[in-house]
Amino acid sequence: MKKTFITMAFTLLTGAAILFAGCTKVVEGCNDSTATNYNSKATKDNGSCMYAGTLLFWCNANNGIITVNINGNIGFINMYYPTYNPDFGAAGCASFTLSPGTYNYTASNTTGSNWSGSITISKNTLQKLLLY
Predict the structure, then answer these.
(1) What confidence tens digit (pLDDT) does each residue in 115-130 have?
(2) What CATH number is given to the structural domain containing 73?
(3) Using one digit for the tens of pLDDT, what is the confidence trace for 42-98?
(4) Considering only CA atoms, which of 65, 59, 79, 58 is closest in space to residue 127?
(5) Cα(132)–Cα(56) distance, rounded to whole angstroms?
(6) The total number of structural domains that make up the chain
(7) pTM for this prediction
(8) Are residues 38 and 57 in the same domain?
(9) Is the CB of residue 97 less than 8 Å from the CB of residue 56?
(10) Pseudo-torsion of CA 33, 29, 124, 73, nearest 10°?
């Protein structure tokens, strides 16, 4: 009787282990590593991926402090680069990370200079805009 019980218990446990061994928990989310909301644990893409582009405003002449407004986001240019094009993340530049789309911008300084225009941001791009 004891041997039969042990054999039955072993058989049941082995069967359960085989049955559940192939099962994995499905984790829905964004599984595109280029998206801003990438989830490395996602096993099933649920269409929630979001993308962005980076835009850098810079200046090559001393125009004082320039306030840049792009769709309500404010940044400041307080350095200038007269001899070279600055890298992304450079000090003194106004940098924005935005979803893909077309945006209007305005910029002005305390001496009365004004700039305005529109720019189209594409997903996963780095763009620079020189104000001169």
Answers:
(1) 999 999 999 999 999 9
(2) 2.60.40
(3) 999 999 999 999 999 999 999 999 999 999 999 999 999 999 999 998 999 999 999
(4) 58
(5) 14
(6) 2
(7) 0.71
(8) no
(9) no
(10) -140
